[in-house]
């Protein structure tokens, strides 16, 4: 049954909708067609404008002075909005690049920017490809059947980003668990608990870990990203504990969870579209385009919020100062006005103007690394893959923010290295 406009809008505030691709995209299609800028009043949430067309989202992303990340950068319940405001006032909340605006955003972004520039990516590529081989070899060791998400995909990009930070492998499992608890706080299988207190406990565990790391890197600097963050100075002063910890959190979490979702969702798409898998096998030069299509198809970051700094108009709709807007990236990446046959998975799609990494000053800092990791993995997997199929029902993460496949049971045959 096709949802009404109001039902479609409320789906954007329902974490279970993001675990059901058909339901989510049916709702988004209604909004793009009938109310692309729609006022949503959902139970337990402060109201917001749902923005679902690619062009309108681009307009908002371009104007970072009119549309601000603060004070509501992510969709959360009204209760959590109030708690987050209170924490920010007390100086104990997250203050990542996602949460802040210029001039602070520009200054803090520069701290990590050099670590993700082309020169740094070229230096890192041999390590990324080595890890890609390790995890394809791991698939061979698993005997031809596995839960690809849990046994392969979540570990590979985690090793990459935590190696870049310089963390010891003995801490990787801890970082994985904390990341899943942070981003999966609406998923019964991943959350530590449903209460705000349990959510805060996850955050405080991150902060405690990174406070200790900061002290160690300030005492004994090393040649890694963790040292660059720990020893960064703004106006001659080191970052305070919460800004430092926040920087680590966004790098250590978003730096791997989104990539593992893309790899898992990309593999599922190839399984469900065997003609595209055959096409990629036959023409490996398509791999860069295939990577972009996987990123568009999965769109791991589901939304960011913006707040209008003054009265304005979006998509012909009047928005008042102080009102919040939800930017729906899965909707933008299926917009019929931008993408030819947007519900077709096409490894040769060109052009591919997806917004999975955002746009403008808040464009994803790690986009080049994510592309490299996805390409390296499939460069290693595809030549060795002789057969693959689903071995059970895939499941997606229950979320409104970052997510993708949670379980992907597969059966396959791979040639040894």
From TrEMBL:
It comes from the Bacteria. Pfam families: p450. The keyword Metal-binding applies. InterPro entries: Cyt_P450, Cyt_P450_B, Cyt_P450_CS, Cyt_P450_sf. Coiled coil: none annotated. CDD domains: CYP142-like. Keywords: Heme, Iron, Metal-binding, Monooxygenase, Oxidoreductase. Belongs to the cytochrome P450 family. This is Cytochrome P450. It comes from Actinomadura miaoliensis.
């Amino acid at each position: 049954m096709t949802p009404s406009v109001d039902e479609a809008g409320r789906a954007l505030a329902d974490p279970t909708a993001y675990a059901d691709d058909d339901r989510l995209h049916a709702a988004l299609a209604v909004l793009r067609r009938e109310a692309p800028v729609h006022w949503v009043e959902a139970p337990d949430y402060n109201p917001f404008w749902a923005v679902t067309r690619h062009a309108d989202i681009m307009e908002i992303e371009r104007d970072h002075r009119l549309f601000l990340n603060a004070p509501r950068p992510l969709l959360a319940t009204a209760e959590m909005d109030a708690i987050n405001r209170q924490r920010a006032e007390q100086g104990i909340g997250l203050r990542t690049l996602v949460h802040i605006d210029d001039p602070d955003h520009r200054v803090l972004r520069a701290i990590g920017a050099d670590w993700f520039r082309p020169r740094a990516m070229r230096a890192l590529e041999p390590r990324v490809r080595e890890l890609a081989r390790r995890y394809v070899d791991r698939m061979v060791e698993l005997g031809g059947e596995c839960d690809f998400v849990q046994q392969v995909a979540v570990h590979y990009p985690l090793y990459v980003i935590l190696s870049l930070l310089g963390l010891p492998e003995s801490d990787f499992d801890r970082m994985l668990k904390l990341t899943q608890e942070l981003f999966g706080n609406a998923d019964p299988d991943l959350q530590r608990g449903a209460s705000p207190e349990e959510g805060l406990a996850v955050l405080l565990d991150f902060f405690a870990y990174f406070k200790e790391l900061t002290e160690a890197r300030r005492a004994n600097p090393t040649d890694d990203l963790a040292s660059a963050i720990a020893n960064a100075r703004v106006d001659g002063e080191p970052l305070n504990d919460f800004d430092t910890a926040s920087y680590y959190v966004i790098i250590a979490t978003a730096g791997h969870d989104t990539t593992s979702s893309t790899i898992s969702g990309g593999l599922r798409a190839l399984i469900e579209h065997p003609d595209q898998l055959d096409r990629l096998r036959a023409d490996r030069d398509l791999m860069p385009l295939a990577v972009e299509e996987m990123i568009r198809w999965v769109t791991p970051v589901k939304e960011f919020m913006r707040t209008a700094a003054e009265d304005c108009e979006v998509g012909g709709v009047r928005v008042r100062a102080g009102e919040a807007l939800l930017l729906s990236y899965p909707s933008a990446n299926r917009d019929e006005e931008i993408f030819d046959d947007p519900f077709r998975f096409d490894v040769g799609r060109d052009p591919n103007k997806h917004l999975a990494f955002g746009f403008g000053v808040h464009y994803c800092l790690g986009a080049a690394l994510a592309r490299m990791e996805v390409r390296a993995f499939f460069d290693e997997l595809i030549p060795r893959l002789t057969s693959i199929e689903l071995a059970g029902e895939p499941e997606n993460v229950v979320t409104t923010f970052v997510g993708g496949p949670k379980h992907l049971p597969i059966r396959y045959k791979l040639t040894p290295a």
